[in-house]
Amino acid sequence: MRKTILRGVERKGSTYYLNRPFPLIGHLYFGLIDRGLNIIQARITSLCNLSCRFCSVDAGQSSRRIAEFMVWDPEWFSEWVDLIVSYKEDGVDVLFDAAGDPVTNPLLPEFIRLTKRNRKVRWVILETRLHGATRQLIDELAEAGLDRINVSIDTLDAQKAAYLSGNPSYNIENVVKLVEYAFHQHGIDVHVAPVWIPGVNDHDLEEIVEWAIRNGFGRRIPPLGIQKYVVHPHGRKIQNIDEPSWEEWERFLRRLEDKYGVKLVLSMSDYGLRKSKQFKPPLRRGDETWVIIVGEGPYQHEFLGVTKDYKWALTLLSKKEVIEEGDIILARIIRDKDGILIAVPT
């Protein structure tokens, strides 16, 4: 059973369920992020049913996180989407990504349907590994209006895929079938986004390139966007594998471009992206504001907070103070980039 914490916040185990009227801008792990482009990041969950060995956001069952987030009110979420979109010119994309995987939110089709209602929204995109998805879910996403799937597939080898995903139940053959079903049966475009892990999946990426070309993926943008393996402070690292330099990464992509005749070194324009008016909370670095503590945040010494006027979510950092659920604390904003608010007690 879920426990009510504050208005619009319930908790079950380590997961917060967020509903009206809890604000959905200001936090990295849930809600909406506007980075000043004609695309908005939409985060409706931080949960993931895989535990990839190279995960940059430390998601999944092997995560060190102590709190997770699930947005549970599609209508409320769509109102925030509409608010941000209203600040921008026509042709806004909405990318459902996550510090996890969006398919772990069972309300995903409804979130997409309500987002697609906005006439200024050009494309609705889903970034996912599709583990746990079914044909029925693909049918529902297509009916809801999903335009593109950015699918993360790092190898087509079943054994290696299970190893890299950190989950022995991960079935890459099923994922491949779902991707092809979405593309060929429903016309949902596909952009394949593997991670290059030097010495681990070099040859596998060649097979993925051939698969993408063979299926004709990438009707509106290039079919592939190969990512560089990057070690993040909160992320996971594969033992004995060094992060490649950007120069090494580009040389690897150029070699594949020459071999297969497909564009792999991409720019913003390849994705149809451009700078756009940015929506941000009015709080700026150095400002002070009263914060209501909802509870612990994703990691130790982090707390989920909301401004006392209930307009903006934020993260409070504190190593010294004894902070408890329901406390009201005067805090100073120390970071406001892209509307993601981080504060410390004054």
From TrEMBL:
Q: Where is the Radical SAM core domain?
A: 34-263
- Show the SMART domains listed in the entry: Elp3
Keyword Phosphoprotein on entry? no
The alphabetized UniProt keywords are: Iron, Iron-sulfur, Metal-binding, S-adenosyl-L-methionine
| Top-rank taxon, per record | Archaea
| Gene3D superfamilies assigned to the protein according to its UniProt record, in alphabetical order | Aldolase class I
Q: Name one GO molecular function term.
A: catalytic activity
Query: What name appears for this protein in its UniProt entry?
Result: Radical SAM protein
